[in-house]
Amino acid sequence: MKTTISQAPKFLGQEVTIGAWLANKRSSGKIAFLQLRDGTGFMQGVVAKNDVSEETFQLAKNITQESSMYITGTIVEDKRSPFGYEMQVSNIELIQEAIDYPITPKDHGTEFLMDHRHLWLRSKKQHAVMKVRNEIIRATYQYFNENDYVKVDPPILTGSSAEGTTELFHTKYFDEEAYLSQSGQLYMEAAAMALGKVFSFGPTFRAEKSKTRRHLIEFWMIEPEMAFMDHDESLEVQEQYVSFVVQSVLENCRLELDTLERDTSTLENVKAPFPRISYDDAVTLLQEKGFDDIQWGEDFGAPHETAIAEHYDKPVFITNYPADIKAFYMKPDPNRPEVVLCADLIAPEGYGEVIGGSQRIDDLDLMKQRYEEHNLTSDAYKWYLELRQYGSVPHSGFGLGLERTVAWLSGVEHVRETIPFPRLLNRLYP
After folding, report:
1. To 10 degrees, what angle do helices 124-146 and 231-252 make?
2. What residues does CATH 3.30.930.10 cover in the chain?
3. Which of 185, 186, 246, 385 is the most buried (most CB within 10 A)?
4. Tell me, what's the pLDDT at 57?
5. How many other CB atoms sit within 10 Å of the CB of residue 405?
6. In this protein, which residues make up the domain named Aminoacyl-transfer RNA synthetases class-II family profile (predicted)?
């Protein structure tokens, strides 16, 4: 019977064959312990000299790291291992012997590991991070599908910018100018006017020359947009969605979180509702905490966000930022037009902003005014203005950065480990 490591517990007491690679090994006299991986998980194979042929035992003792094989044996319980099961090996069929595998069990520098990212992905901790990422994606689709959202794919090549052109990658589109998308939001607004509640999930690009642990050049965004929904209703969606994803990861990635040595106590507390603090009160709080550099009207940096998050035991919404530091499409507060109906969701433990969202301007005259203020008078934005001209309704949306969320839930320090092949300021390889 051919199976996988993740399915092996279903075959307790039975002999199975698994296609696997050797992650590590140790041997002691008449027994060899093979640490196996097959992409679905990690499991130990025990090779006892008295239970196998001499040829198989010598192969087990001499097989090299990352060599590939078909390995056959009986699945038994092993309460000492995190997985809970191991294989009592009866036969090994070598597929390919790996010679001089460059990533050994010793410590390596980050740059070396990034140069060998195509191989580093095979390691136990990187495997665990990718499984957490996959669960976030799976839970995202489940949440939005179960709540009657329609998946829509906005274009990656655009003729205009969502939030200004200073951080866009420019390219030629035949005889026209084009950009790599920094957000699908404007297109998602059009989709919401057609389909009601929509969400996108895809790559976005920021030509931001940043080297911080929170930034990537290419990253993935989940961007829902909802017609007939105001700002407060959108905040409820955001906290319910994030709570659902976090609890799904806790339920379905327990082994991976253990591998990552993630303290899950703060994650277990992530359940709606989340606390909220206005931008005004956040500025006051920061000044009380000794951040004399921050004044009303200035945006928050990473240290400011971390200080605010430390004041709470859950993710926290910072609401109603000044209009001058937010995007042109955000709806002003009717009672206080110098601030907009928006919020950033700040994750605990110093992981920073994971969601940015707002209610969008739905008034045609106000949007025309914004166009003039931001010099958006070109034909490239005509279609976006028409959304306010033909059946405009109150609508809201948000964007969640996948890699920052993966970093937060898996507990890794840098977002470069949360995407299979990171694109950084000075890295386009591999």
Report:
1. 140
2. 117-417
3. 185
4. 97
5. 26
6. 130-430
DSSP 96-154: E---S-S--SS---HHHHHHTHHHHTTSHHHHHHHHHHHHHHHHHHHHHHHTT-EE---
Tens-digit pLDDT profile for residues 393-422:
999 999 999 999 999 999 999 999 999 999
- Could you give the CA distance from residue 125 to residue 148 in angstroms, rounded to a whole number? 35
Which residue has tokens 């955001």?
238
- Separation between Cα atoms, residue 292 and residue 283, nearest integer Å: 10
Listed in sequence order, the residues at least 6 apart from 408 whose beta carbon sits closer than 8 Å to its beta carbon are: 347, 348, 349, 351, 354
58-115, pLDDT tens digit by residue? 999 999 999 999 999 999 999 999 999 999 999 999 999 999 999 998 899 999 999 9
Cβ atoms of 107 and 66 closer than 8 Å: no
- For residue 374, the one-letter residue type is H
Q: Which amino acid is at 69?
A: M
Contacts of 30 (CB under 8 A, 6+ apart): 48, 49, 50
Domain 117-417: homologous superfamily in CATH: Bira Bifunctional Protein; Domain 2 (3.30.930.10)
- Architecture field, domain 2-96: Beta Barrel (2.40)
Residue keyed to tokens 């939001």: 185
CA angle at 229 for the pair 223 and 232, rounded to the nearest 5°: 90
| β pairing state of 15-28 and 68-77 | antiparallel
β-bridge partners, 219: 204
Question: How many other β-carbons are positioned within 10 Å of the β-carbon of residue 140?
Answer: 21
> How far is Cα 369 from Cα 367, in angstroms, rounded to an integer?
5
387 HSE (CA, 13 A, CB side): 21
pLDDT at 376: 83
Residues of the chain where predicted confidence (pLDDT) is lower than 70: 161-166, 378
